[in-house]
From TrEMBL:
Gene Ontology molecular function terms on file: beta-galactosidase activity
Highest taxon, organism lineage: Bacteria
The species this protein was found in: Kitasatospora griseola
Pfam families: BetaGal_ABD_1, BetaGal_gal-bd, Glyco_hydro_35
Keyword match NAD: no
Residue stretches making up the Glycoside hydrolase 35 catalytic domain: 9-331
Occurrences of domain Beta-galactosidase 1-like first all-beta (ranges): 384-488
Record GO biological process: carbohydrate metabolic process
Family classification: Belongs to the glycosyl hydrolase 35 family.
Protein name in UniProt: Beta-galactosidase
Keyword 4Fe-4S annotated: no
Length: 589
């Protein structure tokens, strides 16, 4: 059993320094888990931490998917000699769409999410009833068990102060059989620790530097708890149209050394970042976290497909310079404190061999198909994505300007997040949330069409839970009514059998054939594209965007097969890319 006091942790009575690394099972392919986890152990870590994204596992009310992945990941961690820390939410942040909360739920409960509201809590309880048996059955002390700790919510002190809510979650975890220590994690600020902690439950802090000050703040609030940095931000994530983030290796290693010297346990966030496959990437608001008084009007910033994070293991799972530096810090600490550093088993961990990389080549896109929209939903106003039962993807909105109207400007309200506007069948404007557009006019009898795309829900701050789509279109001051909306989910690839030879273009599916004698990792680029989506064998890798910083999309070996493979592209800008490049190395900016 794991116990603790102000001096540190003990596992079955033996002193233990927890040396953990974050790796999310949902950001890597299951076939890659063994190698990634073995690499974490080879770095000197004895524990792996993962979030659990609720919206991945319950995409619509009562419909559960991929639930067994968490248990399978915890089992693989045991095989690789690692203890585990589980952070089941219900909110996770994690630069993940909506912070892991289902869009169907937040659209319904609105600002009541992450509170003690009965409707919200009922949905949380129903999900935990289904999810938590996988965790309970794998707690340390049970056969094959690895779970040492379980989190209550996530950085709640950065959001709210509803103690009844936190108490309900903690009590619910215990009632469902969680017996290992519970914990909270918050920024090392007085108001965050005041709002986010629960009496009698371990409090931890998240930071990227200055561990001495952070731990001193924690100690003021919790003198009885051992110091634990639950998220040591050794790198950072990227937003589209912003610079690629890196952190100096020596600086990160120095902060890790100081965390350990201060008596702290640590969880590297991230040890291996992975990929925001599909439409799972979240979004943030610029300058919002600590120095802005108005979060709701700061620029919207969608997160890139890559979640490389400048971590110790890169997106492909290979060791970076930080891997060697962190391994040395941990080895030095272990040599000086042999009684504190031990592992689940006595294996000598070695780095696994890397997967092969495919050679560079071009794949021509030679076939095209129309987007397979379904039947239209009629509504007096344009329905939101959530009202159409769509978490992510596209909605095509269509209406007609009243016949008696003369030429007047159009105004699109509440766009989230990008749209192509057509008037009378011709492209009139490319619209983007928060970006001023040139004036577009329409005349009576003109058909107005908007193809609206979601780029990810905000995952941190007061705008978590926002809806997607548009809220209205005005013709001068008059709202246009009588809409027809056609939703289209993009993950997985929408089924269509109407491919035929033709030239690629905007808003068309374009595909090409890739023949392989042997498989391997590769990196795909769309050099002639504007922005859109790319699938491999019907699996959605994610978004591409000419604004960068990310240029290539990582395609892991398990998605490819010997023989025939299919690459499919959807261009949503005004470009007409006719090829996809396979490259031997990533380009993240």
């Amino acid at each position: 059993m794991l116990t603790y006091d102000s001096t540190g942790f003990r596992l079955d009575g033996r002193p233990l320094r927890i040396l953990s690394g974050a790796m999310h099972y949902f950001r890597t392919r299951p076939e890659q888990w063994p190698a990634r986890l073995a690499a974490l152990r080879a770095m000197g870590l004895n524990t792996v931490e993962t979030y659990v994204p609720w919206n991945l596992h319950e995409p619509s009310p009562g419909r559960f998917e991929r639930l067994d992945e968490l248990g399978a990941f915890l089992d693989e961690a045991h095989r690789q000699g690692l203890w585990t820390i589980v952070r089941p939410g219900p909110y996770i942040c994690a630069e993940w769409d909506n912070g892991g909360l289902p869009g169907w739920l937040t659209a319904k409960v609105g600002r009541r999410a992450r509170t003690s509201d009965p409707e919200y809590l009922a949905a949380v309880d129903a999900f935990f009833d289904v999810l938590l048996p996988q965790v309970v059955d794998r707690q340390w002390g049970r056969p094959g068990g690895t779970v040492l700790m379980v989190q209550v919510e996530n950085e709640y002190g950065s959001f709210g102060s509803d103690r009844v809510y936190l108490d309900h979650l903690a009590r619910g975890l215990r009632e469902r059989g969680v017996t290992v220590p519970l914990f909270t994690s918050d920024g090392p600020e007085d108001h965050m620790l005041g709002g986010g902690t629960v009496p009698g439950i371990l409090a931890t802090v998240n930071f990227g530097s200055d561990p001495e000050t952070a731990f001193e703040t924690l100690r003021r609030h919790r003198p009885q708890d051992p110091p634990f940095c639950m998220e040591f931000w050794n790198g950072w994530f990227d937003h589209w149209a912003k610079p690629h983030h890196t952190r100096d290796t020596a600086d990160a290693a120095d902060s890790l050394r100081r965390i350990l010297a201060a008596g702290g346990s640590v969880n590297l966030y991230m040890a291996h970042g992975g990929t925001n496959f599909g439409t799972t990437a979240g979004a943030n608001h610029e300058d919002a976290p600590f120095n802005s008084t108005d979060w709701t009007h700061s620029p919207y910033q969608p997160t890139t497909t890559s979640y490389d994070y400048d971590a110790a293991l890169d997106e492909r799972g290979l060791p970076s310079a930080k891997f060697d530096a962190f391994r040395q810090v941990i080895a030095d600490f272990a040599a000086e404190n042999p009684s504190l550093v031990h592992y689940l088993d006595d294996r000598v961990a070695e780095l696994p061999a890397a997967a092969p990389v495919l050679g560079g080549r071009d794949v021509a896109l030679t076939e095209i198909a129309e987007l397979p929209f379904g039947d239209a939903v009629a509504s007096p106003v344009p329905p939101l994505f959530e009202e159409l039962g769509l978490e992510q993807g596209l909605v095509r909105y269509t209406t007609t300007v009243p016949a008696i109207s003369d030429a007047r400007p159009l105004t699109v309200e509440g766009l989230r997040d990008r749209a192509a506007l057509k008037v009378a069948g011709k492209h009139a404007a490319s619209l983007e949330r928060g970006v001023a557009a040139e004036s577009v006019t329409a005349t009576g009898g003109d058909q107005v069409t908007l193809l609206v795309e979601s780029l990810g829900r905000v995952n941190y701050g007061p705008l978590v839970g926002e809806t997607k789509g548009i809220t209205g279109v005005r013709h001068e001051r008059q709202y246009l009514h009588g809409w027809h909306a056609q939703p289209l989910a993009l993950d997985p690839l929408p089924p269509t059998t109407a491919y035929a030879a033709g030239d690629p273009g905007p808003e068309l599916l374009a595909r090409g054939a890739l023949h392989l004698d042997a498989t391997g990792d590769t990196f795909l680029a769309v050099p002639d594209g504007d922005h859109g989506y790319l699938w491999v064998n019907d699996f959605l890798l994610g978004r591409y965007d000419r604004r960068g910083p990310q240029v290539t999309l990582y395609c892991p070996q398990p998605l490819l097969r010997e023989g025939a493979n299919t690459l499919t592209l959807l261009e949503l800008g005004q470009a007409a890319p006719s090829r996809v490049e396979l490259r031997e190395a990533p380009d993240l900016g």
